[in-house]
C-alpha cells in the first residue's frame, strides 16, 4: 500500500506532462502555431497571423557588458533571454525572426531601443542570435522580421 502512495503522484505528473505535449502537437498539426511568451515563460499563446515587417534586415547581438543593466522599457537585460532591441516598434511587440541563410526561426520580444548603427535593423540577445546564426558569420546576419499578430 505504501508503494502505491509513492507511485501515484509520479504517475499524475507523468500523464499531466504527456497531455501538455499532446495538446501542443495537436495544435501544430491543425495549423495553429504555438509561441512561448518570452517575458512570462510559463504561458503559451496561439498565434493566428504573421505580418511581414522587413525582409533582408541586418541583425546583430548585444555585447555581454549590457548584462544586468536596465533596458529602455525598464526590464533588466540578460543575454540568456529571448528579447531584442528595435528603433520604432513598441515595447512588448512579439517578433518572429528568421535567418535568411539557415531558415532557423526564433520568437523574441521588443524590450529595448537600438541598434544605434545606421545599417542594422535589430539587436538580438546572444541566445537568440545563436539560435539562428549560420556556422560561419561575421557578427551580423541577414534576417526576415515578421510581426506576430494575436
From TrEMBL:
NCBIfam families: rlpA (TIGR00413)
Family indicated by similarity: Belongs to the RlpA family.
UniProt domain RlpA-like protein double-psi beta-barrel: residue ranges: 57-136
Organism: Flavobacterium nakdongensis
Gene3D superfamilies per record: RlpA-like domain
Name of the molecule in the record: Septal ring lytic transglycosylase RlpA family protein
PANTHER family the UniProt entry points to: ENDOLYTIC PEPTIDOGLYCAN TRANSGLYCOSYLASE RLPA, ENDOLYTIC PEPTIDOGLYCAN TRANSGLYCOSYLASE RLPA-RELATED
